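Bump. Still looking for GAF domain-containing protein structure tokens.
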Amino acid sequence: MNKQIGIKVLWLDQYAKLKEENKQLKEELNSALHFSKALIEDDKSFELNENESSELMLSIDSIRQQREKLKVIEMERGWVSNGLTKFVDILRTSQNSLEDLCDQIINNLVSYLGVTQGGLFVVNESLEDRKELNLISAYAYERKKYLNRTVKPREGLVGQVFIERKPMYLKEVPEQYINITSGLGKARPTNLFIAPMLMNDDVYGIIELASLNEMPEYQREFVLKLGETIASTIASTRNSDRMKSLLEDSQIQAEQMRAQEEEMRQNVEELQATQEEMHRKQKELEATNAKMQHNEGVLTKAFDKLRTSEETYKTQINSLEVEKSQKDEKIEELLREIELKNEEIKKLGGQL
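Sorry for the wait, here they are.
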């Protein structure tokens, strides 16, 4: 009898325990249901009590925490994606100079990140023997700062980032570094982020951002990605400028070649005209030579005839001279005879 009573008491205790456990399980299920509903409806007012530490509730809370982390990650990704889209549109639609483009980029970047000051350095490639960084644009409190800064490799933090090709994030900014000037006075920045603008491991420029607040990692990653896009745009712009310059040089050379071809064509025409004139003069010269040869033949014949006549005249003259000489001798002989006769006559006259 006592044994039956003991069994009954034991059974009642187990029943009461099971009933209590069932009640707790029901309460946990109800809490889990409410928690799950709040999780589905994104009700942030629902919080897990400290005494609600069952595995189911802890699992649901873990899911909630994971969901919150995913929401943060999704928000960060959306922020990065929207930012990249915004700046890609700026880079794509900008048709102005490099300085105007840098002004738009750094002004929008300072505003989008919520920082207080920013600067954009671009590598000057016009120097053949060395490279240096020129501060193209600087903004502080949404106002453009007209600064003239040139940074050489290894010079300062910007020059160090340029050489190392790695970003630099400082939460303790050196005292000698820039101050942030606002309408309320001056303050030294507590956070400084310097990022290289890389493409194919080449640095095209440096982005420098200063802030009084901490810059989250996803924002720094965004700046690095944006730097790659800006570097690509700068490279594309410079290649376009080189192609434009080469095209202009090619056009100038083509114009020069066309001018040279025109000059050569004129020279060829002048040469052809000169050759035709020379050919005509050559024919005239040949005709003149032929005429001169004909006249020379006539003159030769005349000269031969004249020479023959001269010889004939000489012979006749010689004959006349001989004849004259003979007549002169006869005259002299007659004169002597006459003188002899005269002497004889004188002698006869004297005798008479």
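DSSP finds five helices and nine strands in the chain.

Edit: fixed formatting.
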